[in-house]
Specification:
The chain is of the alpha/beta class. The protein has helices at 3-26, 33-45, 54-62, 66-74, 90-100, 118-127, 148-162, 176-179; strands at 81-84, 106-111, 135-141, 172-174. Helices cover 49% and strands 10% of the residues. Strands 1-2-3-4 form a 4-stranded parallel β-sheet. Helix 7 (148-162) links the parallel strand 3 (135-141) and strand 4 (172-174).
């Protein structure tokens, strides 16, 4: 009868799908750690909100489950972007640096707000001075909103230049927020 070959075919089909069915039932847990980690990077570094601190996304991912925590903490590059803000404490910076390990390149973002002044900037730079040789990028955020802040950053960058910093890994220095708010690029920052 015709029914017998169909039921045999269904049996063969079911046996061949069994290994895949078991993996699909396990869901996310069946994915290799490397793939999960890659997905974490996509979530953390997506630009859904450029104003959002990327480490907060990494922390959120690490709180989902023990497996997620193990994977997130095991991937030091997930913690490589450090946003320095006026309210940054040494304890928080040390916590972030411990997550990034001792060898991972760091992406430093300095975010300005109404409480940022020369003293705050000097303090932030002092907090992370020991990590300067690991900086892959240095980016200043939100200068366009306050033209008075440009003079502060120029002065502080000049002070940094006087220290003759060695930045062997620096590939990206972004002053776009500062420079986009002025037309006089040549005399904007006069570093001696």
């Amino acid at each position: 009868s015709l029914l017998t070959p169909v039921s045999e075919q269904l049996g063969i089909y079911s046996r061949r799908l069994e290994p895949y069915r078991n993996k699909l039932e396990k869901g996310f847990a069946s994915l290799p750690d490397e793939l999960v980690s890659r997905n974490f990077h996509l979530v953390v570094h997506s630009d859904s909100s450029a104003d959002e601190d990327k480490t907060l996304r990494a922390v959120s991912l690490s709180h989902i489950s023990r497996t997620h925590r193990r994977i997130a903490l095991g991937d030091k590059t997930l913690w490589s972007t450090i946003r320095l803000k006026a309210n940054m404490t040494k304890k928080r910076l040390d916590w972030l640096l411990s997550r990034s390990g001792n060898t991972v390149d760091l992406n430093i973002e300095i975010k300005y707000d109404s409480t940022t002044d020369a003293i705050v900037l000097r303090t932030l730079m002092g907090l992370c001075a020991s990590t300067v040789p690991r900086w892959r990028s240095l980016r200043f955020i939100d200068f366009r909103r306050d033209h008075g802040r440009r003079a502060i950053i120029c002065h502080e960058m000049g002070e940094l230049m006087k220290q003759q910093l060695v930045l062997p890994r620096l590939h990206d220095l972004r002053l776009a927020d500062i420079l986009s708010s002025t037309n006089n690029y040549v005399n904007f920052c006069s570093w001696d």
